[in-house]
Each structure stands twice: as C-alpha cells, then as structure tokens.
C-alpha cells in the first residue's frame, strides 16, 4: 500500500485556474509529512520560467529554475512544512509519456541535489518522507488528477502508487510559538592565504554548531516534558540547551584564533502541525524551524552583500545585522490558520516583501496582512556604534571609571542610617 495525501480543496481551485490560464505548467506542492505515511498539502505554487515545449537543453534549464524556486520557497516555510513534490498540468498524462516522466524525474533529482547542498535549510525530512516526492498530474482537459510518488533512493527513480484526495479542511492545525535566544562566541576563521574573513562561511559554521546544540536540547511543552508518542496539543514550548557541568583534562584544550564572532539575538519560531502529529514530531519541527530561519537569514544577508575582491585588512569590529522575520497568511480570506514567513532588513519598507511573496509562492498579500512586529530590531545610529578605539579605551579605563563612580547600595544604606539617627534625635528632644 502506498502513501496517502489529503489536500486542501482551495489547492484544487488554484490548479483549475492555472489550467484555464496557462494550459501547461509545473509547480511546487507544499505541505507536511507524518509518521503514519499520510501527507497534508496546504499550498501549491507555479514555477515560473517553464516552457510548454521542452528540449533536452531546456529541461536542464528548467530543472535549475525549479530547484532555485524550491530553495527560495523553503526559506519562507516554517519548520514542519516542506516542498513535498511537484504538480504538472498538461493535456498528456505525465505517467504515460516517457519524455515528460523523464523530465519530472530529472527536476526532482535536481531539487534533491540542491537541498543536499544546503543542509542547514532543512529542506527535506528523510525520517518521514523516506526519499519519496509527490508528483501530481492534473489534466488540463478533463480536470482529473493522478498522484504517484517518485522514490529518489536509487539512481533510477521508481514510480510508486499513491492515494490523493481533495478535502475541505484536511486537518485541525495547532500553532506552537517559541522564542529562542542565542548568545555564543565562535572562533573567526580566515580565508586561506588571505587577510579577509569569509562572512558567509563563518556565519554558516555558527549555524551548524547551533544545530548540533539544538539536537541535544530538551523541549518542554506547557512547562513539562511530553512523551514523544502522545498526540500534540496547542501549548507553549520552551527550548533548553544542554550545558556541560564538568570538563575533564582530556577535553580541555587551548586554541589560538585571529578573532572571534559573537552570535547573539532572539529568533522567533512559529510552527504549525496537524492534529495527528505527536510531540516527537513537534520537537523535530521546532528544531528545523529555528535552524532553517537562522540559515535563511544568513543566506539572504550574504546575498545582499557587495562581493568584491578587496583583500585589504578589514575593520577589527564588523557588525552583520541579519534581517528580521515577518509572517503572512497562506490564505487571506478563508480563515486558514497556517502562516509562512519572509525576512525584512531594517532599511526596507514594509511593502518590500509583497512582490517577492507573489513571485515565489504566488500568494497575494497586502501590507495589512503582514505581521512585522514579532521581531523588533533596536535602531542603532552609526555614530552610536563603538569603534575599535572606544572598545580598547573602555577596557583599559574600567578601573578608573570605577573609582569615579558611587556605590549606590552603600550610599542608600548611609542615607537610611542618617534618617534613622535624625528621627531618634527628634524623638528624645520632644520628650
């Protein structure tokens, strides 16, 4: 027996509209897998740049475009949501036309390679998907659909049966919120034989180490641990990282680095899980959301940097401000609870993400639909940022500063004693 899929009915409306407008197109299927082998599809998005008539060369080009859009879409998904596969709208049955089926397999393998090259985006959930991706064929003529899974576990992907159903409200969705705070210092590594630092490599390494910490973390729901097999419920979640209480002489070592990176801030994590999920799956999705959100910010930030070949010595103190997270609804009018997210730099206007959301996910949102107040970044003016000289001066003048400062608790105690003495003196004089 193959996997089964429950898909929201508004996705069928979207496919029907695409079949009337485009006739032939391909897109992404976004949803959540489960341990029971049942998948939930909550969104579909057309892949831009696909041609109706495809040659071998255009297939490779389209695979690149599709893989990049799948990567961009994943950055916008909360933990627990994945690009589950693709849909194909075509007058010919994709499973009967070998050229179309070969193109689909090539695109899926290209997507897998792209996600494998970006492991910190957590683009796949191997424990639940088991290397299988969905392929939904939707007939542009008869408006019927056929869904199968393609197993990417082998070099020659196999096509397996799958049961697909369009339903109204496929599940009840629980929302879990977590605010994860990080305040760590990591060694700063230089590029080989160069004086400048690789910003993306150092930030990525910090995210990688954080992922390992989160994998060993303890997550409490409603202030207490929950059995991994218990069905999930909407309760607050807290993440506690492990700390080493003892360090043996064999584990202790001294390393010298040219610099360090202080990695601190608060990450907003917001996941949605269907009612059949367990607390064990919720823990997995929370970790995936924090790591994915952090890595998405790093990639977006580094993509925005001006890449130069300047190898001159950089400033001793460099500030990298990652964009903050904003949320938007998948459906703005039906009351569907699931939300996706995007990222906004401090200097960007609230309207900036609207076009990007439309282009990547084909979701139309207005400014009023965006929740931009979950993460707030303090405004620091350039003339308020500490320079290297200021930092050195501060560290050297700490003792001098201390001598010129009053010890407020001591002063408060002296004032109290003086007031008490005056009160006693007045009391005896009045007798």
TrEMBL record:
Transmembrane segments: 406-430
GO BP field: intracellular protein localization
Keywords: Membrane, Transmembrane, Transmembrane helix
Source superkingdom: Eukaryota
Compartment(s) of residence: Membrane
Protein name: Protein odr-4 homolog
Family the UniProt entry places it in: Belongs to the ODR-4 family.
